[in-house]
Amino acid sequence: DIQMTQSPSSVSASVGDRVTITCQASQGINNWLAWYQQKPGKAPKLLIYAASSLQSGVPSRFSGSRSGTDFTLTISSLQPEDFATYYCQQANSFPLTFGGGTKVEIK
Amino acid sequence: EVQLVESGGGLVQPGGSLRLSCAASGFTFSSFEMNWVRQAPGKGLEWVSFISSSGSPIYYADSVKGRFTISRDDAKNSLYLQMNSLRAEDTAVYYCARATVVPAANFDYWGQGTLVTVSS
Questions:
Q1: Closest Cα to residue B97, out of B115, B112, B116?
Q2: How far is B15 from chain A (nearest CA, A)?
Q3: Which residues from A are below 8 Å from B44, CB to CB?
Q4: What tens digit of pLDDT does each residue of B3-24 get?
Q5: DSSP codes, A54-87
Q6: N or C: which terminus of chain A has fewer CB atoms within 10 Å of its end residue's CB?
Q7: Quick one: pLDDT band at residue A54, thresholds 50, 70, 90?
């Protein structure tokens, strides 16, 4: 199984800050990585797929990138509605696996 | 508008069974792969099962293999998860999630979830 190691587990940031979350795959997954946002009591929302493709309707302040087996989600200028938990997920092979999550909190 | 509505959750004793349903609307259900994803209270997301648009192939997480069965009824626009031999560690919110077209292993629409509690 492919393990997804996500870091940090939490980050405190202020509105307007640039926030970076990383996810490392235990083996090669090509570009098959997605990022989700989840708010308390709600279902996750797809933000990024194929490592860097923005899902329709997602603000352009969200971006994704890849370097080998390392993946990054960047929020260029944090907005109040961005405080949430973020998960990565590999879509390369079954079983599909998620990272452990990163909680973005208000500083 | 795409909608996924889960039902069937509840309290069940260890060793018991439960059948979850997911009613889909707003898209051509028969054309899409579907998944179940769960989230234990206060924990992260765990993929549970996948079913292709044709009904095969089907995949399961090791944690549920042999106990859970995913199925679909395209005539009823519905997805199911039959859960047998339930354990305390199966306690979670269970989400029905539509697979993206490319790749067919991301989740672009989710239901609101249904809570399954396994406890005596």
A1: B112
A2: 25
A3: 87, 98-101
A4: 999 999 999 999 999 999 999 9
A5: EPTT--TTEEEEEETTEEEEEESS--GGG-SEEE
A6: C
A7: very high
- Whether cis (ω within 30° of 0) applies to the bond prior to B103 is yes
B107 to A50: CB separation less than 8 angstroms, yes or no: no
Closest listed residue to residue B21, CA positions, set B40, B11, B34, B39? B34
- At residue B29, the 3 state secondary structure works out as helix
| Mutation site, A86, A96, A98, interface B, largest B CB count within 10 A | A96
- How high is the pLDDT of residue B101? 82
CA distance A97 to A90: 6
